[in-house]
Amino acid sequence: MNITFSGKTALVTGSTKGIGFAVAKLLLESGAKVIINGRTQKSVDAALKKLPSARGIVADLSTLKGAKQLALEAGEVDILINNAGIFQPSPFFETEDSVWEDHWQVNVMSAVRLCRELAPAMRDKGWGRIVMLGSESGFNIPSEMIHYGVSKTADIALARGLAKELAGTGVTVNSVLPGPTLSEGVEQMLRADYMDDGESLEDAGRDFVADVRPGSLIGRAASCEEVANLIVYVCSEQASATTGASLRCDGGIVDFL
Hints:
Elements: E1 9-12, H1 18-29, E2 33-38, H2 41-50, E3 55-58, H3 64-74, E4 79-82, H4 97-125, E5 128-133, H5 146-165, E6 171-178, H6 184-193, H7 201-212, H8 224-234, E7 246-249
Parallel strand pairs: 1-2, 1-4, 2-3, 4-5, 5-6, 6-7
């Protein structure tokens, strides 16, 4: 199977590192014109040094102004990957409204706003791909960060509802649900809480999965590239019959068919 995106433009939010960066890189390698996005000029410039053929736009997607700015500067796109997101472990009874609001604005409303701005042009053109970055935490709500799980459940619901809204238009909308993944954010957490002297990041990931996600069938954290492979397939011509789906790349953590 040959996946190519020649003539297509893709916007990947939160793509200066982690899963978003891996998706942007693979889309570029597959022929797409790619717009990467980050909150600071420094982070965008660092990513562009690694992906010099991409285009970078600085925008803070925690605000309506930032989302509108990004949509305006990006212009018409064929592929929208709503990857921007935050996570923060916090005990439920100690988690203030501000934490809930931050997660809602970044993890959910950024996707709502960009879809509202960019999907109509896809619909009018008769082709488009939208992917929401959900999480296995959207089904398997983690007790240590309920606020995050709730926001990811909302992302999954948003994808399903928008897929219905765009049914028959040539625009597909899906959510992809990673499990623990060796992104930079997870790496920081592992180094702080799980890595012994001399232990590799991959081994620390195995310890983490055994501790907090013991139902994992692969028994390890995924790589960003493994998650990106699924996302890029979902954006391809070959995935034209896949829409309204929540596609798990969670290592088998979620225990239902």
